[in-house]
Amino acid sequence: CVLQPTECFLSQPEEKQESPVKAKRRKKKKISDVLQKSAPKPGVPADLQNLLTQHFGENRSVIEIEELKLSDSCFLPANDLSHSFSSYLKEICPKWAKLWRNHKEKKSVVMLVLCSSALRSLELIKSMTAFKGDCKVLKLFAKHIKIKEQMNMLEKGVFHIGVGTPGRIKALVEQDGLCLNSTKYMILDWNWRDQKLRRMMDIPEV
């Protein structure tokens, strides 16, 4: 009879010790909380340049790092609210119709658009209708599409624009499914923020 109450008393303080630990776990800061406190700033050319230097800095010589540097004239900012995606593309590529009609190479695209998600890719494909005309656009993301399907399509047909995520595009290049020799334009969906308010450069996997 004496052992029973002591067992009950021992189990109660253990429960009390666990509860503050659980409370602490809930209070962990999320990246969205941090971003919400600071006003979202649009990306600038220096952001991309710093990212390239950080990524390649350890494995490249001084000369190779210099070759990676892009002048500000290589960038056309899309922070002007008067631009739609199609009108932005028309401004950076005024001779698009001639370019895509002359493109005959398989396993390649003339323009590559990189987005942070599959849903964002679909959104941009819909919004470039006025720009693309009759040229062929290929979805280059992992959601509901197998990499072998994309490789087969690139091998059998001629596509002019590829829109997708960095992970899938990287995999296609590494597996020789996509060749970048014919690529003239690379569009980074740099300033768009997802539900967690992250830009593409804020996602560690990218």
UniProtKB/TrEMBL annotation:
- Which residue ranges are recorded for the region named Disordered? 12-42
Name assigned to this protein: CMS1 protein
Gene3D superfamilies hit by this protein: P-loop containing nucleotide triphosphate hydrolases (3.40.50.300)
Example of a GO cellular component annotation carried by this entry: 90S preribosome
Pfam families on file:
CMS1 (PF14617)
Which InterPro entries does the protein's record reference? Cms1 (IPR032704), P-loop_NTPase (IPR027417)
